[in-house]
Amino acid sequence: MVAQTRHAGQPSPKRKLEFRDKLVGKGLSTDALLKKMKTLHTQLATLDQDHVDVASSPTARKELIHSSILLHKDRGVKAYAACCLADILRLYAPDAPYTQAELRDIFQFFFRQLSNGLKGSDATYFNEYFHLLESLSTVKSVVLVCDLPAADELMAEIFRDFFALVRRDISKKVELFMADILVALIDEAQSLPSEVMDTILAQFTDKNARIDQPAFRLAVSICNATADKLQRNVCQYFSDIISSHSEDEEYDDIRNAHDLIKALHRSCPGVLHSVIPLLDEELRADDVTIRTMATQVLGEMFADKAGGDLLRKYPTTWNVWIGRKSDKSVPIRLKLVESCRSLIANRPEAREAVEGLMKEKVLDPDEKVRAAACRVYSQLDYESALHHVSKAQLQAVADRGMDKKPSVRVEALNAVGKLYSLAYPEIEANDSSAITHFAWIPEEVLKITSTSPEVRNTVEQVIADHILPLPSGSSSSSTKGPEIDEAGWTDRLLCVMRYLSEKSIKALLALSGLKAVRPNIYQVYIDSCISYNGGIMDEDEELITRRLNASIQHLAVNFSDPHKTQEDLHGFAKLNENRLFKLAKTLLDPQTDLKTLVKTTNEFHRRLETSAPALLPTLTAFLRRASFRILNTSSIPSLLKRVGKAYGSTAGHLIQAAAHAKAMLTFMSKWCAGMYKGHVGELVKAIGGDERNVEVLEVAVQALSGLVKSEGAGVAPADKRMIGLKKFAMHESWRIAKFATRYLAFSKQKQEACARIAKAIAEEYASADSADIECVAARAAALAQLSQFAPEAFDKHSNVYMTFLVKKLLMTPQPPGSEDMDDGEEWFENDNVPELLRAKVQALKVCRYRCLAHADKGNALDLAAPVMKLYATLLEHNGSLPPQGKEGKQEGEGEREEDPKFASRLRLQAAASVLKLVTVQKFAEALQKKFLRVDGYDSGRGQDSCYNVRYEFLTKLLTLLQPRKIPPQYNIIPFLTVHDPETDIKTLASSYVESAKRRMPQALRVEHLELIFIRFLHLLAHHPDFSTAHEDLVDITKYVQFYLDLMASQDNVSLLHHLAMKAKTVRDGETHSENLYIMAELAQELIKKKAQEKSWTIQTYPGKVRLPADILRPLPSSDASKERTYLPEETRVWLEELAKSALPKEKKERKVPAKRKATSKSEGGPKRRRKRARSEAGDDEDDDRDDDDDVDGRSSEVEDDVDMDVDRNGRKRATSSPKAPTPRPKGTRASARNKAKQRRDTSPLTEPTDRGRVITQMQVLFLLSTLYQGFPLTYPLPLYFSLLSLPEPQSNPTYRALVWHA
Length: 1302
Description:
By secondary structure, the protein is mostly helical. It is 60% helix and 0% strand. A two-stranded antiparallel ribbon has the order 1-2. InterPro entries: ARM-like, ARM-type_fold, Pds5. This is Cohesin-associated protein Pds5. Keywords: Cell cycle, Cell division, Mitosis, Nucleus.
């Protein structure tokens, strides 16, 4: 047996309370009582619950709850009494030695002491209060409250007191003790009083509730610690609110409850597990307001930090929430979309679902939802957009820049613009992810610039605010002004251009404000405002007022709200603040540098916002267009350095930056050379530098030539190095020679210098046996400048020049190379134009400039007649000249073998030269009969086989039509593009017409666009494809329909109908045929149909119209044509059917004449590259615009206004049943198109069902040449054409080469 000590297994002796003094009695002073209470507290605090004899303190235990103690006036007595009672409860735990009534009084006493005394660590008796609180927290004696009568009231009081108490400046430990006490009460309570829940949840509804607030922090601690217990109470709380207010029209309480749910989810989501199903049900509720609130609340809950757990635990609720994207209520879809911003940033696991939702919502039927969807992306930070939004989604947002609604356009373009601004530092640093994800944004923004004035305004704002903003630092208040990084600002422009297409670069340059004749319309407006003087004028009041009104009207057309713009511009003029006018003139000055621009812009905005804030948006847009914010005189040094850095470098980024810098400098030289006025020294230095650096030399020479041309010879420095320009006129580079000659033509010694150059070139030409001489293109380019700017020097040797240029250069064909015979290409890209072709093009310009230089002389027509004949011959022979001394080809000789790539450039230049000659009235009269005919339009390259020729011809035509430099009847040509196989040509023409309608005053619009309708009908009556066959008339109908779609309106429909009727009161002055009457009847029916569709009333036109006497003649008898009907019966029936339904946009495939077929890239024949024919710098077509300055001082901006982004989709047209053609009337000719159609109808290889296909010589030739590359042909070449009922193309170079090889 194991031995044990005496006391082994016996409990240790329990300690007894030694305090035996009386606490209650008469004559006991406060000090004495306080001393006794301290002693009692000290002894009780040292006793251990497990080793105390609780029976040793009956007297003290009873006396402590005496009313004289609990209600004592001294705070110290009550503080020690509370501590002693807390210790007694600790020692007696778990059974309290008091009755329930006594316990109620004790706990009320406890919390009353804490509320009144616990104010801070420096407060009196703080240690005692802290002891009391610690005891309640650790011993958990407070749970006794839950068993007391009326415990709910006491608990509510405790919670109220504690949340009031915790707002004081107390320590974190005290706060933790309070949380422990309240958590213990909640855990022990069988049910929580509603007052307790109200007190806890009230902490979350405070607007200032945040985690640094003690009361809010205490409530969060309690909720997180008792989440399982509180779930049911929280759910009941919200259920009561929703059910009690479900029938009310006011939703304030329900809205507050939803706000509370959001606050709870952010801090203590565990208490809401029973609430989520309630929200799920609300998403399905019939009440729109309830659904809206539930959608918003859940959206924010899914997006906050606890949203990931919510999404995983409640996938059904997530799917129902996502399903609200199809809700019929717009506010609900709006709330859903607005919630997606935080979801994109915080919930990467839900990216796929959110992106699918947003992809649908950017195309939502309601504009507010689309705008909100776009706005979401403007609120993202860079990292979120880069990692959580796909490029395809950003592109979908950018596509909304073409939305019909202004609010959507603004939000979409601002969104992508802001994202680009955030990403630019990374793009500049060549971060591949940023480049892939965001570098395309400027391209997408710029390509829609010309869509409409509204879109252009938004694009300008986005460019100015986000893509190319002015440098920051404008807020500096130093006396030296803000620090501006001019080089960095210019480098940003080049960085943006690095990822732009040629078309977008052109659009960007159009926004730069440089392309205008000075003074431009903005300067005219400011000068008019100064002269207007607020309406107080001493003289010329009517003239000044009229000038001001005209400038305002012209400006307002290009703004999104013309009416408001006119009011604001008038208001600015009436404001008459000279300081604002002075600031505006400074901003409009090309010599204003970047630093001054920033400073002046800020001052202008600040002053205008103070004096007339309502005018600020309009005047901001005005200055954005008028000032030099994209290209500035401060950009020139940086751009010159960029051009120079590429010399000898093989780095791709340096070469590309140099090319773009050169394009910018070239654009400045061409349109605003005055910018170089402060940089003459740098240009002279560049000219005197390394001559091997041709790029820098060329830029400098062009800049100086443009400067002396615009500012006069006085700006040229008297520097010895400028002598080098004389030798540069004979430089081997054609561009350097061209600009050096131009500089000398405007220099102080121009007569001597030009005479020397003219003599040197004449000597070279006189000694040359052929055009095969060195620098032939450079010499021709120099001659072009002499003929334009120094005609006296040119005329001294004109016979030598013209003999060489025409006989030895132009009339000497360039046969195609063996490698080019079968490729089907008809165009040289600008960088690949051979020197000989460039020389030929320059030779054609020499002829044109010579005519224009002598236009005001008496022998102008005699001098121009051979030139006009030369151009006409080139157009007639498809870019080739016939054999010398012969008007046509001899039998069996065929046309001269000019390389098709040469021929396309030559016929384009010939057509462009004709357009330039037409700007002179006497030349226009001589050319009109030949050129302004459908066959002239075809030979003028309107239906050229080469897309580049057609596009360039139309562009040059519109450039002259917009400033009205050529007669009004040339406005007919854009309406003849309706059947072009490439959609963008038709779109370009349509855009010009729409722009012209918008810009022109009514009188000009009538003269230039409406009165030409009868000329249009006359032109169609002489169309090569016109016949009385029904299917041909259907094709002709498309021309008239195209015109009416663009031009007809309620205001002019009576005039158009009147013109169509008047056509039957005259006769055709050329052929006396009845075709004009057929067109007149056809037009009348189409106008009636148009009026019926639009519900217009065709009234009798009240005015008198003078018909053009050059094409129409009076009838011998007034009733000769009015009574008779000329329109074929079948066509008349067809038009009646159209009156009952909309006119189909496409009837059948347009069949272009075989000889002049304009091949689409979608056809199976030779592929034509769709690349634009020119760039802003470096090709002779571009220089053509540079040389041909505005002769009447008007600005030519048509290319900026009508160049639009177009789709490339081909058109499909229904086919019509074959029908025998009606005999063609006398006086008309059978076109190549109709002849090909007749051959097709009789060909044994084609069936009647193939009427939509036309097999042409060129297609057969292409197929044969392709087949021959793989294996020999079985039969002789002529047999293939014979089987297809096609003539042999003996004059075609490819065919002759194929015959030779075969």
